DNA sequence: CACCATTGTTGTCACCGCATACATTGTTGA
DNA sequence: TCAACAATGTATGCGGTGACAACAATGGTG
């Protein structure tokens, strides 16, 4: 016999929302449906999220946290060399992006509310990881000197753009590996000191 | 006294939808509101669009057509030199992308319906333009030999990724010019024959 | 001019988000 | 230990939506 207090409703709603997002996309996510899945009344979610958009923003924030985790895990497995680390980050990014396409869309959607500040703040971690990696390349004289923030943003943008084209059915998924390697190769031979 | 037959309802709905998209974003677009603006009953739009998603797909298709027009116009104004043409295309892409951020989201959203085939087909034109530009660069020995499709897709992805970061408030808009120039510079110096 | 296709209208249903008022339980401080 | 308050539920209401079905009006065609 379930009690009146769920006890962990916010987390349960987010978990259900991630499943729903994966299966049906963001447009089909509904607070009422999530409430039914969690076994509470339809108004209960509004005690944990100001509105539907706030729940979507929370999903996006969790997405950037998980992206950061996966990029760091990829770096750990790649060893100390800059070039293998760059390849590892690119591969991990695109794996995350193509496996969780609907979440990616949420993460990068235009932000309408002030409540999206936490989402934007969460993005700083993977951006910082990329920045640090560029600085490593420059310190080791593999990359030319230059503004690491700009260089890192361009590389990050390239990965995100590739994911968008693949997820949007504008580029065939079987081209992914080749395009990713072309992207890293172009990035390196363009920034590599001569 | 308006007649029973609107006479040009499909075009009127699309025009109203573009205005609504620009002002409020895709999420706030509603068939009933568009019908009211066009002065017809709420069910009339369904005579021209199978459902709401079909209208959104039509907007995306028009977006790719307009993007292609703007890229070609930029090329016309850039003269024959490959490098100025590349810069012109990059600038025109990002101008379009940042001025019509909501439309851009629609163009690149994940496609759920079979009806999105026309949208994907419409994307072929700007992709083809980019492909042709890469071939020009390779023919003139400014770019290294290589698969022009892959190279063009990576460059296209980079521009789209930059637009996504800017439009998603993940990168400050005032960084746009510098990042775009860095992107073109990295692209050239990476693919430029040495 | 009749018939058919196209394109409208009216009405309905089920769903939704959001808001308000009230109810139940958990926590805290005296 | 208990009262007060906060947190977190429920019930109800409202206005809007998308999609669908049945019917109506007009335009085009043979």
TrEMBL record, chains A, B:
Pfam families per the UniProt record, alphabetical: TetR_C_33 (PF13305), TetR_N (PF00440)
DNA-binding region (UniProt annotation): 30-49
GO molecular function: DNA-binding transcription factor activity; transcription cis-regulatory region binding
Alphabetically ordered keywords of this record: DNA-binding, Transcription, Transcription regulation
Domain HTH tetR-type: 7-67
PROSITE patterns on file: HTH_TETR_2
TM annotation in the entry: none
InterPro entries: Homeodomain-like_sf (IPR009057), HTH-type_TetR-like_transc_reg (IPR050109), HTH_TetR (IPR001647), MT1864/Rv1816-like_C (IPR025996), Tet_transcr_reg_TetR-rel_C_sf (IPR036271)
PANTHER family: HTH-TYPE TRANSCRIPTIONAL REGULATOR BETI, HTH-TYPE TRANSCRIPTIONAL REGULATOR RUTR
Protein name: TetR family transcriptional regulator
């Amino acid at each position: 016999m379930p009690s009146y207090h769920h006890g962990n409703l916010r987390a349960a709603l987010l978990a259900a929302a991630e499943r729903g997002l994966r299966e049906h996309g963001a447009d089909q996510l509904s607070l009422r449906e999530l409430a039914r899945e969690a076994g509470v009344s339809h108004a209960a979610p509004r005690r944990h999220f100001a509105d539907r958009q706030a729940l979507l923003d929370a999903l996006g924030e969790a997405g950037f946290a998980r992206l950061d985790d996966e990029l760091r895990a990829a770096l750990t497995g790649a060893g100390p060399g800059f070039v293998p680390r760059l390849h590892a980050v690119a591969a991990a990014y695109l794996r995350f992006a193509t496996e969780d396409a609907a979440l990616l869309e949420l993460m990068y959607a235009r932000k309408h509310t002030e409540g999206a500040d936490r989402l934007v703040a969460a993005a700083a971690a993977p951006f910082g990881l990329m920045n640090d990696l560029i600085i490593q390349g420059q310190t080791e004289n593999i990359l030319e000197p230059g503004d690491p923030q700009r260089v890192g943003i361009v590389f990050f943008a390239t990965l995100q753009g590739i994911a968008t084209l693949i997820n949007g059915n504008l580029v065939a998924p079987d081209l992914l590996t080749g395009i990713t390697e072309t992207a890293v190769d172009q990035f390196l031979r363009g920034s590599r000191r001569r």
